[in-house]
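Quick one: structure for this chain?
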Amino acid sequence: MSEERCLPPLTPDEPFLPAEKPTMYFIGVTTHRSSIMRIFPRWAEYLGLGDVAIRGINLRPHDEPENYRKVVRLIRQDPCSLGALVTTHKIDLLKACRDLFDRLDPLAEVTGEISCISKDGTEVVGHAKDPITSGLALEAFLPPGHWERTSAEVLVLGAGGSARAITWYLLQKTHGNNRPARITITNRTLPRLEEMRRFHQMIGADLPLEYYHTPLPESADPLVGRLPPQSLVINATGLGKDAPGSPITDRG
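Got it. Here's what it folds into:
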């Protein structure tokens, strides 16, 4: 049953044919290696979803816009293609396909990224769930009042969609005084780092924020070393997941 539910991944080099059964897609880089391929069949069975499937779509990081449009058109046009989870490509996919969505949820509008595609009748909807889920993840392991009690900082390695979502959550004024003393963001390329700066300006960020261009892992090591005790370091890059390596060195 698991093999029937987990179909081989697609790549943009092949035709995207209509699904033969109700199908959810997982849009990533190396989707066939993801644990969701083992978990989804159990979810489907537990929830009584019937004869449904999940299928990965493997795209290159920062892929060609037309490849993103090919994916969204499949979901839009095929009645059995019901939606998708998006990882790695959250910002690039929305940039390439904004006109193919009938609407975005409020967080997707604010963050400029989507992590989930759903269908509401004939409408295709983009959602940004990462600001919610990243907040829940942080709350699950940080002690209550951690930031206010420690005056610790946050270092976010990477400036993609996940980093936008995490920093959006940390910057919310509803946390009162329980916010980091400073948030530092790094990235290997300058354009995405500048986009992050503009995003923070747009949402009215009011905490100390610093941005560093770190083209090599050793560039980020000193930023780790300067952090005060009980600070948080987040790997918001694809290194170690979608590509080998790390955003810092072993020394870092």
